[in-house]
Amino acid sequence: MSGSTLQTEFEFTLSKGYVDDEGSVHRDGVMRLATAADEIKPLRDPRVQSNASYLTVILLSRVVTQLGTLDSVNPHVIENLYVSDLAYLQDLYERVNERGADVIDAVCPDCGEQFEVEHELDGEVASGNPEEMGSLEE
Known about the structure:
33% helix; two-stranded antiparallel ribbon; 24% strand; 5 strands; three-stranded antiparallel beta sheet; alpha+beta
């Protein structure tokens, strides 16, 4: 048996963030690994049964455990994210639960070629803010 521990939580920063009713912006958050129940239980939700696209909202509201100073992250919060932040969280979910958190999709700024980059995360996933990700040039 190895001495390594399983990383179950991943920090992130949204590029735009959730704007609450008071106008405060919440960008920094934490997503945990999904469980089987996280993927199964939302299928019983009437909102998902009437609109399959709503599964993403319910699923993300279950696995995003922190967002800024909000008391909780619920479907209303996820519904009101900007589309680019929702897409970022969907991609993060896929990375940490399916492909492994050490793979980041990248695009060459010169030629536009898409590729994956392996990256040591040490508990934090690269930001959804392109200005904070740095250059890919060697």
